[in-house]
Design goal:
With 153 residues, this protein is mainly alpha-helical. The chain has four helices and no strands.
């Protein structure tokens, strides 16, 4: 695959991942504490259902594309470094998702308004805090990928 095509694919994939997190953060998660518990549960379950499957495909594809462009540019020092930093930030995004967010999501999937655990707001706030961090790491991944593409062009 030619570099410009691979760059476009990588930029598109990172943009999609970042868009999922940024869009959720920008439009919803900054207001999570204002929702009553039953609305929070309904919204949470809906988002989990809608995002889980596509992101299980999108995240690995994104990481593979970042690895690929890093490998093919390993001899072009400034570009390679930008791509590696992008890969590191996207890997952090994945680790936060799998290590912190998904376990909380798995708990939320079992909740009902009648069976809400006593610490539900602590879990909600923890999810929100780490969602903000992974939104930032995905944005930084996109930024460094974009810088690398621009430098190489």
């Amino acid at each position: 695959m030619k570099r410009p095509v691979l760059y476009c694919v990588s930029l598109f994939l990172v943009m999609l991942v970042t868009g999922v997190f940024w869009g959720t953060w920008f439009t919803l998660t900054r207001s999570l504490d204002s929702f009553p518990p039953d609305n929070f549960i309904r919204i949470g379950k809906t988002i989990i259902k809608n995002v889980g499957g596509p992101m299980a495909i999108l995240m690995p594809a994104t990481l593979l594309s970042l690895i690929w462009i890093s490998v093919i540019n390993r001899k072009v020092r400034p570009v390679f470094l930008c791509f590696i930093v992008s890969l590191v930030f996207m890997t952090l995004t994945l680790l936060i998702t799998v290590g912190i967010e998904v376990p909380i999501d798995n708990q939320i999937k079992t909740w009902t308004a009648d069976s809400l655990p006593g610490n539900w707001s602590v879990l909600r706030d923890r999810w929100d805090q780490y969602h903000s961090i992974r939104t930032l790491t995905s944005i930084l991944s996109f930024l460094f990928l974009s810088i690398g593409v621009v430098i190489d062009r």
